[in-house]
């Protein structure tokens, strides 16, 4: 019986050998892959075993970490003024992941980024725990506060940019949410998170309206139409009479007139006067005269139809579509199928205010390692040149006229030159919903042009006409501009 | 110790008893788990755990008593098996105790801390070990109980059908006041005794009364009967108790013992064909089996949006890497429930002791198995040979089925890792199994009695010319 016994011995040996080979395969060959698998909870446990780096505004952290003793995760994210900063920070939740800056800069904040290799290596030798780096933003806390408080209970958004650099100064969206409420993973957090979801909350508080929501730009788009007219040489003198009959009928339609808001002097009005009174007929005709192709080209120079505007949080694509003649004419007054994000309109304003040069908008100034070494620094860069400097001058003059004695007088600031444009975008079928009130503006001092701002308020009561933009949105823009100017004094 | 023979267990006259070797290794077998215990305490609490004295004394006492009993009642027994069993049992206790430190899997519903119970079961197991060595003077006595063993094995196998299923398998019987037992663990020993007794008698008929056909020896129908009965029985266990492991174990056990008894390769071929056919047939209509196979083929797949136990075990192994996270510093509790302490205890070993530790554990099992087969080789009687190979084979299959299942080599079957995993029936039965092997090896290695002095020798004269 010994021969089969020896064979059984070999067989059992092979069984053990196959087990040894298998564990080598799993624990040596596949180990890294399994170790870093997204569903391997150890990854998350490791991540939350240390405080996360912070997001910094004006030298102060607007985020923090707190220890929670229950569960696997040691540290939890908390936010200071969470609701106000949510459109900037996004959220980082143990249970629901992260978004916006928290997500985009996750590797820096959690300390795993390759850029932190040196600091990590030093920590390894000194025996310190891995730490996260900080994200330093360009935001202005006073401007942000003015924007957020100005919006108050209404639904809307504010985007403010430094025209000279493209640095984003304010990014507010209301109604907002406090990311702290669901940063953990308890049932309470889940409840808070679910209550914020659009399907449970028609106000959609987690929507970042400043970056991620597009609106019909309404009359504020007339500055783009004016820019196209100047750039294409349709009109060169902003004080000369234009060829604008009243009533003016939309092209390719059966005598469908384009109406102005109220009885305003628009017949053959100069560009400056037309903008001051917000004449639909004048700008509708300019758009029709230039044609869809030229209008679209100019809009694109301002950043329309660009799906990759990364601040680094990606903004929704603002569109100026290829369209038929009547639609294109309507688009010229921001009332057709063209749509813009508040950031986009702030970019339009900032390009005009910056002598026609559009700077790439950004909100992360630098990334800092735990040892305070700067690992990445943003340098302002130009994005495009939608206007020649002289045309930018002309547009500025026109916009300043709007604030001085036009529809935007609510944007005036003592001792400061302010240029602006109001807008009220009708929406809903047959205009039945409440309109959007817009105001875009910039403030200019002897030292330069430190701020351009766009404000939009959704569905504000029943006020119609450009008055709405001037009455509702302009005061907010004014406060934001003042907040920025205060810091500059 | 004066002999110069090698460490082989093949009995030559004057083989050393190797009891001192065993003692020296037992010291290691006690020290290693004690250090592991301290290590866990230091990692979890930063201090030497309070129970260290009790644990060391307990384990040391068990090892000491077993050693003395072996020295007295089985002086020529194999010196490796007892230290390996002690080491595995001791490490198992440490791992279970370590998992008891995780509040999430030590809730009241899950039975609370399980290490104290396991310590008690281990003590009972060792007591049974001692009982076997003391009262079973010669393993051949067991031959007398061949058919009683068969009846007992059948009763043990069928009993769980009358009890409710637990954790997806119907392999438990519940005795009020005592708790749950897994009769399959005991059945594996009893059935090995039955097979050894039956085959010793029938081996010639099975081996010789067969026709040659295409290079294979086809047995006669009446000789084929028993294997078909066992095959059908193992499939029935699979179907009614949804217990893949046990059915595979018994069928494999029978084929191996049949092969050894008859020395006919054809039995292996038949065995493989039958088991393959049976497995395919069952898998086509048994959803339980299909799920297991599916999980095996897609180990990391999410189920209902959650991570499966299979995936969690794989993550444990992967995260452990080569050297492991260190005792007490892994997250194998994520496997959830009672599983990390029982079926999946190897995942904890893999994560916290790493590839190195896991391979060491597997090699210990391999060593124990090979010592068992060596005992079979050394045994002088066919019954002892068959019993030893049956017990070692069952042990080997169980280790392979469990470790292979947990590491994803083969589909998972719910069985316990001998000595290591939490489970009273398992630890008691395996101590008894080791005791039987030791008894056989003692008999095998015992020096043959010195030949009686021949009176002729003195009277014969050599006449020189």
Automatic annotation (TrEMBL), chain B:
Residue ranges of the TM segments: 23-40, 52-70, 82-99, 119-136, 145-165, 185-201, 222-240, 246-262, 267-285, 344-365, 386-413, 419-438
Cellular compartment(s): Membrane
Mode of membrane association: Multi-pass membrane protein
Transmembrane is among the record's keywords: yes
Keywords attached to this entry: Cell shape, Membrane, Transmembrane, Transmembrane helix
Classification via InterPro entries: FtsW/RodA
Region (Disordered): 445-465
Protein name: Lipid II flippase FtsW
Species of the source: Streptomyces rimosus subsp. rimosus
